[in-house]
Amino acid sequence: MSKEIDISIRYLENVLSTNNSTLILSSTAALLEAVSKNCNTTDVELKRSLISLLRIIDKKCFLNQEVDVNQIKFSLQEVGKLSVKCPKSSQKAAPDVKKKPNAEFRDMEPIPNPDEENIDNLLNQLNLKKVPSFAPAFPDIKDDSDDENGVTTKQKEEERAEQHGQKVCEEEVVKLPDGREIRMKKTKTVNVKQTSKHVTISTKSANMPEVSRTFMNARRGFDEDEEEENTNFGSSNLRSDPFERFRSMLKDKDEKTEAVEGESAEPGTPGSSSKSKTIERTSEVSQKVSEKKEKDGRLLAEHEASKLDKSNLFAKQVDTYQGTSLIDRKGEGSYEESTLVRNALPRDSQVTTPPRMHVVEYMKMFGDDKKNNENEYLKGTTISSYVRLNSNLTTHEEQFKKKIQFEFSTAGTSSTTIDLDNLSDLLNQTDFNCLRPPNKFLEEDTPRIVELPKAIDWQREPTSVPPEKDLLLEHDAVDYVIFREKEGKVLEVRGGPKDALIVYATQSTHSSLLYQEAFLITFRTFISALELVNKLIKRYLYMSLANDSQSESIARHTFSVIVRIIDEVTQYELDFDLITSVTSFVYRLIHDGNFTYSRILRTRLLDRIKDSFDIQTVLGTNLCKPKKPHDLFDFKSADIACQLTYIDSQLYHRIESAELLWWSQEQNEKKSKNLVNFTEQFNNLSFWVRTLIITQSTQKERERHMMKFVKIMKHLREMCNFNSYLAILSAIMSTPLARLEWGKNIKDALKEHTTVMDTSQSYKNYRALLQTAKPPCVPYIGIILQDLTFVHAGNPDTIPTDRCNGAKNMINFLKRWNQFAILDSIRKLKKWNYDIKKNDIIVQYFNGFKDCVDEERTWQLSHQIKPSNRKPKTQS
Question: Do 66 and 203 lie in a common domain?
Fold first, then answer.
């Protein structure tokens, strides 16, 4: 038994006495990893004992069922005994045996296709940053002198310096049967330097046209270095071709060679080899623009701005071969970029309304009904605002430092950036025109036409009804999907049967990352997570039994989608049925010898189960109650705004996209627990602010508290925390406070804030404020829920039958595109987080915002301060 397995077993035995489910599950995961690394995973008895152990532990920890601890200890002993009998070092290469078509399980892992996922394909998907030309906006300085005969000179200088470097290192190590190692290493380094300078001088005098002259100076340097290194370890004679002897040994099947460990190797057994490729890229682009304006030698204005863009990329890929067969591939890396802009004035960001074309189209579709036209116009405004928000966030991504980490392997997925530039084009067509109906239909989509048999046919034996086609077993579902076409060109998915959309999201060809993201975010609107996982498991098992490379690729894509769903499954969805389905699939993967997939899936499931949240960790503190209660004015307005933002940010990042979708459809508090916590925080803060203001005994104190909250609002707006900002604003604008008399200074201070809550044109002012905000940002969730509800109520779930040749139950994916446009923009805001530390003293003063009076008491206090002018009714 290896030391790693021995330690894992003993640790798990000790953890069992604690009865801590989290520790037991974590220890089991460590044992599973140790066995997969150190044992022969093709041994049937070992796999059975592991599955038996996992079943018992899962019943105890995942499903909370009563289990005898002695059963777990007995299974542990069995795993320990079998791990001694089948160490990995004794594993020999299995002979090439053809599988039977009806084989129930696979004994070997599928050999990965080297063209599927590799370092070059991944780098092509990363969409590495290209630095555009820097064009800052300088204010136009006008000459205020009365002299019209002078000479005005304007000089503009643009400098750009680029420095790019790339280092590619490829190394191949071959272990020969005689114990020697042959290592070949090739390193190529390229450095490029380029500088350019443009100077434009414009001169203008009275009654003379403007004369411009341009000067340019550019330099370019290129340096390339290539180095090769060949090493033959274990031999004094280095041949010109280090692989010549190795090839001759493979041809001579009768030759026997003694291995390094003293064991005799089988004749002609090919050695193992590994190939690694490392890429390092560095880029630095410095740009400087200056502008100077003079008149008769007198300086009128001078401006200067600079921009520095840096990026660093590191990527590594390692391939392992047995002979000429690729048996494993792993890769990892990171990409980091940063931008620094100094002394540049930002361009004005104007928020434009949607094109008038939308209104004209809606009038043609729905007639001249004014109400419908207004609703459809607001619909266009709503979706367009999120598209612009998406574009704005993309701009801010280039203005801040960001880092992308990625990894890929024959058993995993690759994480890359997703191009959402075509999202606005995708949402332009809002009706069902230009749809290309599916080329094929399922039996459930079109009614069967059954003809009555003729008289001469009554004696005929009844023909068996052919089984319905199962789309989940198809490689490609393009023929069953509805697309939008323009001039004969397919643009994007608009609908199709449920199973066809699932297949299209997991197939290895014709699909897109954008569609996969939209599918994974919105699938809960037409299928549950449990049903989808079960369908994907069925698809994976079928494809993994095939022997062709395309099926194996589809199986890997399908498994990646399963892992992604488990990564984002909500606590509400983690019920008995889903956990049972996933754990049963893990047992099947172990039975098939696929320990890598089983470890990945089980670890992700464990992470989601452990991801519990207690709101008191945010709103509560461990401090003792102070001797003297704190007052609102004991803290700076900026510090209070920071702590409100800390609380909102913590709660906002807990909200799942599924919760927003569920709430827009059914307002179920059990399904949307994190969303309820966030909205309750908004309401509690609003009541708390009203209470602190209206419970003051004098007008002076009420106005003093009012001005304090106005200052806090100003800081919240600067921090782009629109949740607390609007919570305080709604408290100040509430009727019990708004009806009271306030001084002119209060009214003037509130003018710039009250327009934000204007409800005209679907909160146009707030949307404009959100679109121009710099992340990090906490949006107001109420309008998001309103928009999602509007999209849900205003769009059918299925496409009308007359638009798809009579086919029924065709999911309307345009509705999901609209939902995706809203949810993805909000999800992208979560990429940034505030760098704020919790201040326990201020949070303790908040006291969870519990110290507030109810609505009825608020009105009573309001009428005590300013009695109503209503006259009591006289009895006749």
Answer: no
Quick count: other Cβ atoms within 10 Å of Cβ 320? 16
- Tell me which residue of 97, 154, 164, 166 sits closest to 131, measured CA to CA: 164
What is the secondary structure of 812-843 as a DSSP string? EHHHHHHHHHHHHHHHHHTT--------HHHH
pTM beyond 0.85, yes or no: no
pLDDT tens by residue, 389-431: 666 665 555 455 555 555 555 544 433 333 344 444 555 444 4
Adjacent-strand bridge partners of 408: 331
Cβ contacts of residue 313 below 8 Å, gap of 6+? 123, 126, 128, 279, 280, 281, 282, 333, 334, 335, 336
Model pLDDT for residues 170-181, shown as the tens digit of each residue: 888 877 766 677
Q: How far apart are CA 392 and CA 350, in angstroms?
A: 12
* Nearest alpha-carbon partner for 60 in 73, 43, 45, 49: 73
Which DSSP helix (H) or strand (E) runs through 197?
strand 181-204
What residues form DSSP beta bridges with 402?
Answer: 337
Scanning the structure block, which residue is given the tokens 């579709």?
A: 365
| Residues 31 and 166 both lie in one domain | no
Beta strands in 205-324, from DSSP E residues, in sequence order? 211-233, 272-295, 298-322
Token pair for 53:
């152990």
Count of beta carbons in the 10 Å neighbourhood of residue 216: 10
DSSP letter assigned to residue 510 = S
Does 789 fall in a domain? Answer: no
Nearest to 831 by CA among 520, 513, 402: 402
CB 59 within 8 A of CB 44: no
Number of structural domains in the chain = 3
Regarding whether 641 and 739 lie in a shared domain, the answer is yes
Q: Other C-beta atoms within 10 Å of 757: how many?
A: 15
How many other C-beta atoms are found inside a 10 Å radius of the C-beta of residue 829? Answer: 20
Name the helix (H) or strand (E) containing 196: strand 181-204
For residue 721, being part of any structural domain is answered with yes
For residue 772, how far is the Cα from the chain centroid?
22
Q: Answer yes or no: are the C-beta atoms of 815 and 791 closer than 8 Å.
A: yes
With H, G, I as helix, E, B as strand and everything else as coil, classify residue 343: coil
Report the DSSP beta bridge partners of residue 836: none
Report how far apart, in Å, the C-alpha atoms of 122 and of each of 315, 507, 824 are: 10, 18, 23
Alpha-helix residue ranges (DSSP H) falling in 220-342: 244-251
The residues pairing with 492 across neighbouring beta strands, listed in sequence order, are 484
Name 317's bridge partners: 277, 331
Would you list the DSSP string of 2-63?
A: -HHHHHHHHHHHHHHTTT-HHHHHHHHHHHHHHHHHHB-TT-HHHHHHHHHHHHHHHHHHTS
Residue 164 lies in a domain: yes
Buried b / exposed e along 712-736 (16+ C-beta atoms within 10 A): bbbbbbebbbbbbbbbbbbbbebeb
Average pLDDT over every residue of 663-681 = 89
Tell me the residue range of the domain where 722 lies. Answer: 628-777+832-865
Same domain, 26 and 162: no
Nearest partner of 663 among 765, 570, 550, 530, judged by Cα: 570
